[in-house]
Design brief:
A: 222 residues; mainly alpha; 2 domains; 7 helices; 0% strand; B: mainly alpha; two-stranded antiparallel sheet; 4 strands; 3% strand
């Protein structure tokens, strides 16, 4: 069996995974598995009947349908007649990289929890480690990784570092993800944007954002 | 007929109403709503002009600005942002050959060719005038069709609603590019993601994995910004190759007399085709512009010129997409069902403002309903009056390199998402959906059906439950009620037609070969 259409194949895999995942979480783990482990692995939600639908009914219906259609797409990928560029997936990483990246992220979050790091800092640390590793080993994924990391960093540093610090990080991290990076240009961009954001969002729209880092006691703008 | 004018009268009074407001400690009396419409139109154009930013991303980005406004002003502003973004998108399509969204893909074909021949000015003016004319016609159409439709919709029970939503989703699937099965899968995935959070009937927390922030469900804005905004930016960054911008060549704006003669017919035909197609669930601007272009290519005397800079090829789709954009408000305002991702965002905005979209909006809040409709016309007028003189400024904006634009876009998106609930979790969600959106684009799965499914998920489950409870578990109820049955039959016919090999080829031609 040769995968003739990788695009369809991986789309199928994605849909089957999501579909089955939703079904299992909603309906609970299958009995076979439970017997194997000697305990109910995933409790699931109440199914109910057609008259009184429980919380599991609609998700199982949808998830089942999604898994079925995903399987059709997946199988179709073996019989595709399309060739060449049209079916190639242009991803800067493969499925193993993606799994490792996401797994590492989750693991670091969990580890941060046991270290009694606050959730926000654990998130930042995880984002940072995964981003650095991704750029080291998969340099072509740089735009994706740095854009996503920039958003995460902004969200989780806004409270401790204020709008000034968080936007500084976001702008420099994301600008680094582009084709060319010029220190001077990005610095000017940051200066313009921060003045604009403070005036429009904090002063004009009165969004309750801290402007300065929280260690500075008497921030001139609030 | 008289009723319509009376109603539009209510709307215009609302739009021009003077309101006492307090700005920076000073209280003033201002025509606040019209001011918000103006700001919306300007901001929408400003962001919409940026290459690679379509109306969905624009609205998602600017949504937080409207949080502090009263519902009427907020919705008027959002509608303004929508037309502004669409108008800005066609400017970019003509000058840079970069469509911000699928409905301006068609404008690229001839608009860009006109620009290359040094006729960017007339192309831009044609787009503006065509859109304005279409707006003038579509506004009364909305006013005419919305009330009777709302009256019918008031009689809808849960089974009718469920079937209508099925029809809407099927229509969205039919209009998606590429594989039909993949589009259905995206709808299903969206429906399920919409179910995340507390189940209203039983109070059970579903698919939340112990994350307390997910109790209220996944934030719609985070999904839209991630799937459309972030995925778009990453896609643009991965693309190498310089853009060609025609800036110095925009010298004269006004079309020649010969041009005017050539665009009258296409604008008229485009407007009517667009208005009709926009009302269909799943329709809206996209189908309208594709349809109008194809029609014009068939009937035009200059059909040989199409694709090489025919002015008809700009006029017809621009008129059609504006007409379609406006009439797509009809299903939103009367049925509470979004027909495209932009309308899904509008529903999101209405819900944030505490308005449950549906047929009752018109009777319970006539000022809001008619004010919004009246503001559509005012907004279109503003676009023409403002944008023709401002075109030089928009062009300057286009010369700003993307490496400067995208950090700014990212910052505004991040601020917007964070302001939803002052919680970093929304930023995390946006990043997660950015990754999902990126993967979907790479695997050729269109994100638009997912967004529609996401909005309709909880509504569909609710109506399905009610319908089944009323029918005592008999699923045939959906085929026993005439209205519900006809919705379902139309859906099935649509799916069967699209699945037929012959038509499937045709559909792919429309979507692929034209571009």
């Amino acid at each position: 069996m040769i995968i003739r259409n990788p695009k369809d194949f991986w789309a199928g895999v994605m849909f089957v995974t999501f579909g089955l995942g939703f079904v299992i979480i909603a309906a609970g783990s299958p009995e076979m598995l439970d017997k194997l482990f000697g305990a109910k692995l995933i409790p699931g939600y109440q199914m109910g009947g057609a008259v009184r639908m429980g919380p599991a009914y609609f998700p199982v219906l949808l998830g089942g349908l999604l898994a079925l259609l995903g399987a059709i797409i997946l199988l179709r990928a073996f019989a595709s007649r399309m060739k060449g560029e049209a079916v190639r997936v242009h991803l800067p990483f493969n499925i193993v990289d993606l799994a490792i990246g996401l797994g590492l992220f989750a693991l670091l979050l969990k580890y941060g929890d046991t270290l009694k790091l606050s959730n926000d800092y654990a998130m930042l640390a995880a984002a940072l480690v995964v981003a650095v590793l991704a750029i080291k080993f998969r340099p072509d994924a740089k735009p994706l990784v740095l854009i996503l990391a920039g958003c995460l960093v902004f969200a989780y540093t806004l409270k401790p570092l204020g709008l000034v610090g968080a936007s500084l990080l976001l702008i420099f991290i994301s600008a680094f993800g582009g084709h060319e990076f010029r220190w001077k240009e990005v610095s000017i961009l940051f200066a313009v944007l921060i003045v604009f954001s403070v005036l429009v969002f904090v002063k004009g729209l009165t969004l309750p954002f801290p402007v300065c880092p929280s260690i500075i006691d008497n921030c001139p703008i609030r | 007929m008289e009723g319509i004018f009376a109603n539009l009268g209510i709307g215009f009074t609302e739009v021009f109403k003077l309101q006492a407001i307090t700005v920076a400690g000073m209280s003033m009396t201002l025509p606040f709503n019209i001011l918000m419409c103006l700001i919306g139109v300007l901001l929408g154009t400003l962001i919409g002009v940026l290459p690679g930013v379509g109306p969905v991303a624009t609205i998602a980005m600017l949504l937080p600005i409207t949080f502090n406004l009263n519902p009427i002003a907020a919705l008027i502003m959002l509608a303004g942002i929508y037309y502004g973004a669409q108008y800005g998108g066609s400017t970019t399509a003509i000058l840079v050959n970069l469509p911000g969204e699928s409905s301006s893909v068609v404008t690229c074909l001839d608009g860009y060719q006109m620009a290359r021949r040094g006729r960017a000015g007339p192309a831009l003016a044609t787009a503006a005038l065509g859109s304005f004319f279409a707006g003038c016609v579509a506004t009364p159409i909305v006013a005419m069709f919305a009330p009777p439709l709302a009256e019918v919709a008031l009689k809808f029970g849960p089974s009718e609603y469920f079937s209508l939503m099925v029809l809407g989703l099927v229509a969205a699937v039919v209009l998606a590019h590429g594989s039909l099965v993949k589009a259905i899968c995206m709808v299903l995935l969206g429906l399920m993601l919409g179910l995340v959070g507390t189940d209203v009937n039983s109070g059970v927390l579903r698919f939340a994995f112990g994350v307390s922030e997910l109790a209220d469900g996944i934030g719609f804005v985070s999904v839209a910004m991630g799937m459309f905004g972030l995925a778009e930016i990453v896609g643009n960054l991965e693309q190498k190759g310089a853009r060609e911008v025609f800036t110095s060549k925009v010298t004269h704006l006004w079309p020649t007399r010969d041009d005017f003669r050539r665009i009258v017919g296409p604008i008229l035909r485009g407007t009517f085709l667009g208005s009709a197609l926009g009302i269909l669930p799943g329709g809206g601007a996209l189908l309208a512009s594709f349809g109008a272009y194809t029609l014009e290519k068939k009937v035009s005397r200059n059909s040989a010129e199409f694709g090489k800079g025919a002015i008809e090829g700009v006029a017809a789709p621009e008129a059609a997409n504006n007409a379609g954009a406006q009439t797509s408000f009809i299903p939103l305002l009367t049925l509470g069902i979004p027909s495209n991702p932009v309308m899904a965002l509008m529903i999101g905005a209405m819900m944030i403002q505490g308005i449950a979209p549906g047929p009752q909006v018109m009777t319970e809040r006539p000022q809001l309903f008619w004010g919004m409709i009246a503001s559509m016309w005012v907004g279109n007028l503003m676009l023409v009056v403002l944008n023709l003189p401002l075109i030089g400024m928009w062009i300057k904006l286009l010369t700003v390199p993307y490496r400067i634009l995208y950090p700014a876009i990212l910052l505004f998106m991040s601020i917007g998402v964070y302001s939803l609930s002052n919680n970093p979790f929304d930023g995390l969600l946006m990043a997660v959906f950015g990754l999902l959106g990126y993967l979907c684009v790479k695997l050729e799965c269109e994100p638009a059906p997912l967004i529609l499914g996401f909005i309709l998920g909880p509504l569909m489950e609710e109506n399905l439950r009610r319908a089944m409870l009323l029918s005592r578990g008999d699923a045939l109820v959906f085929f026993q009620k005439p209205i519900s049955a006809s919705f379902l039959i139309v859906s099935i016919i649509l799916l069967v037609i699209i699945a037929l090999p012959n038509l499937r080829k045709k559909r792919e031609e429309v979507f692929v070969a034209e571009v």
